[in-house]
From TrEMBL, chains A, D:
Pfam families: ThiS (PF02597). This is MoaD/ThiS family protein.
TrEMBL record, chains B, C:
Pfam families: MoaE (PF02391). InterPro entries: MoaE_sf (IPR036563), Mopterin_biosynth_MoaE (IPR003448). The keyword Nucleus does not apply. Converts molybdopterin precursor Z into molybdopterin. This requires the incorporation of two sulfur atoms into precursor Z to generate a dithiolene group. The sulfur is provided by MoaD. Keywords: Molybdenum cofactor biosynthesis. Pathway: Cofactor biosynthesis; molybdopterin biosynthesis. Its EC number is 2.8.1.12. It comes from Sphingobium cyanobacteriorum. The keyword tRNA processing does not apply. Belongs to the MoaE family. This is Molybdopterin synthase catalytic subunit. Transmembrane segments: none annotated.
Length: 84, 147, 147, 84
């Protein structure tokens, strides 16, 4: 299983701050995961349907969305950070 | 001295500065960020990614320590609901000379204001709350430091 | 808010910062200069030109107010005999945005450290006291601001 | 009469923090005044004999040493300022 965590309006849109999903294929990228989640429709489609607005982290490190998830433990999806 | 704290509660600027002043350096620089109450804002809600924030701030403080000859660095960042006039963030740096203290202080606050994993939601006295957009200006400033 | 004080006694950094934080701006930057106790230094004696100092510091603060959108500036400079660890100088600036606060703080301290009419005499635990020479480095930094 | 004030090692060298002198000629510069004072010998000659090391102010404004004193009320002589 793979942990996903959501922040800010992504969290509000999907209606939860995190969840566990089946681990995607070994060569799946963050963008693939986002597309898979957006396909659920509803709030997921609304906030994850336009990946240009999204940023991601794998195991607490910022990554581009085309990064392969591989054996990572946690993927985070969120809007661009706005700092302090 | 290195101190990093990500916390909901307010902090004591005087105590932070006193600790930095006691390190024997010639200069202590600081920056304190405060919630502005403009446009009917009644509260700012800061959300962060706890597993990431502390580690990332730690790392950027290490970068500053590698880049400037500093005797001490203190970074405090609050999260949660903050009202106008409340302190959000504090950066304090101590060095033998003023330039290192001033430059590293500016470097750290530029990073915190642009790259730190925080998201801000603004609540107004009228109308719906809204999430603040990332500002291109901040990103440009951080790039000036090679971030 | 504009406050300039040339005084022999110590000052309360927390009180200065609290006054600047209360102005409604988003950021307060500060620099505090402290006597370093290196090379056997036991005291620093600061002499100044009273008729000139207050007027000149006033004028450079006005320059800063003209150059950056500041809500407040506080400059305190001590004179007389100061021992290692003692505060010498404080600059605090408040603005809506951090860049104006940080830049004007650096501008003011660079001016104070290079152009303000102070002379420093170092007293050591052994050997004769000596007057500190003007540093070319400081003059260069001030020139960077067009001073 | 013209007020002169001295600071730092200039003050120590001349042995006083200020004095009044006869007003010099209308076209006299600060450098002329310095030369006149240095001609007194002793501490005056020691600290005022090398004008390159000196800085001056007329009526509380920094001026080059070739500035004409004119009707000024106060001339200050001192080493380059060392700041705070």
């Amino acid at each position: 299983m793979l942990n996903i965590v959501y922040f800010a309006w992504v969290r509000e849109g999907v209606g939860r701050d995190g969840e566990q999903v089946e681990r995607p294929a070994p060569d799946a990228t963050v963008a693939d995961l986002v597309a898979m989640l957006a396909a659920r429709g509803g709030g997921y489609a609304q906030v994850l349907g336009d990946p240009v607005k999204l940023r991601a982290a794998i195991d607490q490190r910022f990554v581009p969305l085309d990064t392969v998830i591989g054996a990572a433990g946690e993927v985070a999806l969120f809007p661009p950070v706005t700092g302090g | 001295m290195k101190r990093v704290s990500i916390q909901p509660q307010d902090f004591d600027v005087a105590a932070e500065l006193a600790a930095l002043e006691a390190l024997g350096g010639g200069g202590v620089a600081s920056f304190t960020g405060i919630v502005r109450g403009e446009g009917g804002l009644i509260a700012l809600e800061l959300e962060h990614y706890p597993a990431m924030t502390q580690a990332q701030v730690d790392r950027i403080v290490d970068d500053a320590l590698a880049r400037w000859p500093l005797l001490g660095v203190s970074v405090i960042h609050r999260f949660g609901r903050l009202e106008p006039g409340a302190r959000i963030v504090f950066v304090g740096t101590a060095s033998r000379h003023r330039t290192a203290a001033l430059e590293s202080c500016a470097f750290l606050i530029d990073w915190l204001k642009s790259h730190a994993p925080f998201w801000k939601k603004e609540h107004f006295d009228a109308g719906a709350p809204r999430w603040v957009d990332a500002r291109a200006e901040d990103a440009a400033k951080a790039q000036g430091w090679g971030l």
